[in-house]
Design goal:
Blueprint: E1 15-21, H1 32-49, E2 52-58, E3 62-68, H2 74-93, H3 114-130, H4 145-148, H5 160-164, H6 171-184
Antiparallel strand pairs: 1-3, 2-3
Helix pairs in contact: 1-2
Length: 207
């Protein structure tokens, strides 16, 4: 008997922490051209689906996206994004007959409470640090952190202003609070799981 996963229930205007990893935890981003190709595809899908990307982080064998939907299309967009990238990567590496590059079913817990939101924001920024790839989040080039704190221009799909407004209406104060919030999360903290986060507490609202 074939087990089929139940269809997702997606709020067409919801906020989602989207995660996907390489099949059998294999690397999906082998070098800079692979990272850049995925970023270009993400920009295309984001534009077509009218997504707002508050934050993002690409790791060697997985990635995280904090996506605000406006017109739905999450499942369709992710199939397009992962499928196009996998086909391109297979051509580049000569991979044939070795199964899927990316796991079939991406994870997308709804970020619908303040507790979940703050845990997700901190987790995405610190993922490269907690994985021992860099010492500081600003040292990792494949995430939104550097643009959010003003060290570089954001990628075309990235809207750091939408993230920072949760910290303060004043952009300068928002950046300071964001940096402090992320910095306070470094060290021996409990690891935010891949699966659903705790969903208790007040409803999410910007500052």
């Amino acid at each position: 008997m074939v087990c089929v996963a139940p269809p997702r229930i997606i709020d067409p205007q919801g906020l989602y922490h989207v995660m996907s990893r390489g099949n059998f935890r294999q690397r999906i981003f082998l070098d800079e051209p692979h990272f850049e190709k995925y970023i270009r595809l993400l920009a295309q899908v984001t534009r077509r689906r009218h997504w707002t990307i508050l934050d993002w982080c690409l790791m060697p064998n997985h990635y995280h996206l904090l996506i605000q939907l406006t017109e739905g299309g999450l499942s369709e967009g992710m199939r397009e994004l992962n499928g196009c990238y996998a086909r391109w990567s297979n051509v580049q590496t000569g991979r044939t007959g070795s199964g899927h590059l990316v796991q079939n079913r991406f994870k997308a817990p709804a970020v619908d409470t303040e507790r979940h939101f703050w845990a997700t924001v901190r987790y995405i920024a610190l993922n490269p640090v907690r994985s021992n790839l860099v010492e500081r989040p600003e040292d990792w080039p494949w995430s939104g952190y550097r643009a959010t704190i003003g060290l570089e221009y954001p990628r075309v799909f990235h809207r750091p202003d939408e993230l920072l407004r949760y910290f303060s209406p004043d952009p300068r104060i928002a950046v300071e609070r964001y940096m402090r919030f992320v910095r306070e999360g470094q060290g021996p903290k409990s690891h935010v799981p891949w699966s659903d986060h705790v969903r208790t507490g007040a409803r999410l609202a910007p500052a």
